[in-house]
């Protein structure tokens, strides 16, 4: 499928599209005049049109090599308990990828609005002060808008998890590499179960194909060496470079994604080594004693060497990955419980599965989240990783029946169900 068949605009001819893709491969992402050069290679297109076309290429679902990344079909209840044995007990039984349908079932869902909804950096003062719990939390198309952040992606226990914060260019986990993951510069992986790491080589390869800059990938330090070996094997097999920066992060360690955004790993409790991540914003604030001074006075103080600002560090997003609820009572995890948004695995939602069963497989049951509600001080909680045994109605029913301590601030990621 070519881009112009998907794009409703007929302005791109097949030749232009071909020239565009060739130009993408010719002029690397770090080339300062990249867009000018690409535009020069594509007859009849402006730089703006080129950029737009590029956005659609890398972001719109179903537009990258749809034949190479089969999208799963999850809504068949006949997938039944045998396949779920792997999701609920992947660590014990060995998990294979889930079930593919032969073709994409998302072909008609591609939407321009994904781009239209894109916003700038999420944590401006304005946005935060204007957002009270329960305000801008609406479902728009495929994405959720929660506490000033756009959240996309999908998460189906045992099959595939990839949760994306496009304004931060961050994706958490990559079970299968959905096309949209490719445009995220940072990938944070919680553990090595296939439904969380299986799409990693494809993610790196696809970024290479489009000459995007090498991504930064964070993994638990315990699997770093094996991930390196994995890439070595893929390099050997397909003779490609697979450029990326791989960071092994231990629990409690931090890494700056950019000047005002850092990530810290925290302990989670799963059946194999695992960790969650907290994203912190860092802002320079004027010290209280200098608030109210004139611009000139502040300037003078500053030039005389006085430290007039301090750094305000706040936990914005915490992502657990797979874990038992025990992470909640871990005294080192207080920042997780006060992050603005907590993205929390919740594999089981009703009493068809017991808490004991959930714990046997290293997962969390909704009833445990309810009993810990008072500990969760988060403005919003996004539940993910539901077992594929559930229908979307069952999940929504369970979430709608939450007690007041959780209702109004709890969301469910049901994309793909
Ligand atoms: Zn999982
Ligand atoms: Zn797992």
UniProtKB/TrEMBL annotation:
Matching entries from InterPro entries are given as: Homeodomain-like_sf, Metallo-B-lactamas, RibonucZ/Hydroxyglut_hydro, SANT/Myb, SANT_dom
UniProt-recorded name of the protein: TRNase Z TRZ1 isoform A
Q: Where does this protein have compositionally biased stretches of type Basic and acidic residues? A: 111-130
Q: Which residues form the signal peptide?
A: none
Q: Where in the cell is it found?
A: Nucleus
Q: Where is the Myb-like domain?
A: 10-58
Recorded GO cellular component terms are: nucleus
Q: Does the keyword rRNA-binding apply?
A: no
Alphabetized UniProt keyword annotations: Nucleus, Transcription, Transcription regulation
Q: Which PANTHER family match?
A: TRNASE Z TRZ1
């Amino acid at each position: 499928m070519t881009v112009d068949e998907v794009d409703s605009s007929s302005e791109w001819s097949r030749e232009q599209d071909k020239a565009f893709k060739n130009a993408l491969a010719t002029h690397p992402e770090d080339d300062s005049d990249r867009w000018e050069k690409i535009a020069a290679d594509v007859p009849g297109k402006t730089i703006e049109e080129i950029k737009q076309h590029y956005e659609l290429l890398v972001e719109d679902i179903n537009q990258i090599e749809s034949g190479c990344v089969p999208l799963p079909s999850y809504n068949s209840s006949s997938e039944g308990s045998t396949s779920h044995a792997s999701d609920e007990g992947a660590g014990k039984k060995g998990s294979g990828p889930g079930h593919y349908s032969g073709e994409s079932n998302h072909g008609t869902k591609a939407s321009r609005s994904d781009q239209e909804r894109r916003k700038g950096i999420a944590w401006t003062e304005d946005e935060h002060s204007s957002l009270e719990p329960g305000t801008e939390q609406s479902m728009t198309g495929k994405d959720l808008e929660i506490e000033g952040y756009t959240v996309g992606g999908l998460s189906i226990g045992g099959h595939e998890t990839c949760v994306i914060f496009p304004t931060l260019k961050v994706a958490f986990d990559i079970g299968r590499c959905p096309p949209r993951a490719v445009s995220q510069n940072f990938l944070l992986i919680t553990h090595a179960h296939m439904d969380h790491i299986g799409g990693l080589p494809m993610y790196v390869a696809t970024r290479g194909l489009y000459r995007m800059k090498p991504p930064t990938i964070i993994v638990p330090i315990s699997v770093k060496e094996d991930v390196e070996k994995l890439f070595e094997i893929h390099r050997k097999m397909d003779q490609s470079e697979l450029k990326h920066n791989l960071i092994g992060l231990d629990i409690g360690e931090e890494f700056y994604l950019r000047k005002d955004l850092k990530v810290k790993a925290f302990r989670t409790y799963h059946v194999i080594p695992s960790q969650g991540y907290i994203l912190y914003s860092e802002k320079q604030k004027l010290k209280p004693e200098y608030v109210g001074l004139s611009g000139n006075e502040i300037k003078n103080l500053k030039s005389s060497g006085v430290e007039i600002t301090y750094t305000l560090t706040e936990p914005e997003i915490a992502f657990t990955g797979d874990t038992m609820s025990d992470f909640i009572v871990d005294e080192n995890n207080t920042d997780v419980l006060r992050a603005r948004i907590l993205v929390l695995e919740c594999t089981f939602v009703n009493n068809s599965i017991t808490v004991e069963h959930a714990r046997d497989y290293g997962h969390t049951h909704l009833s445990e989240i309810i009993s810990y509600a008072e500990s969760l001080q988060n403005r919003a909680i996004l539940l993910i990783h539901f077992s594929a045994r559930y229908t979307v109605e069952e999940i929504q029913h369970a979430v709608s029946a939450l007690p007041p301590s959780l209702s109004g601030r709890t969301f469910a990621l049901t994309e793909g169900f």
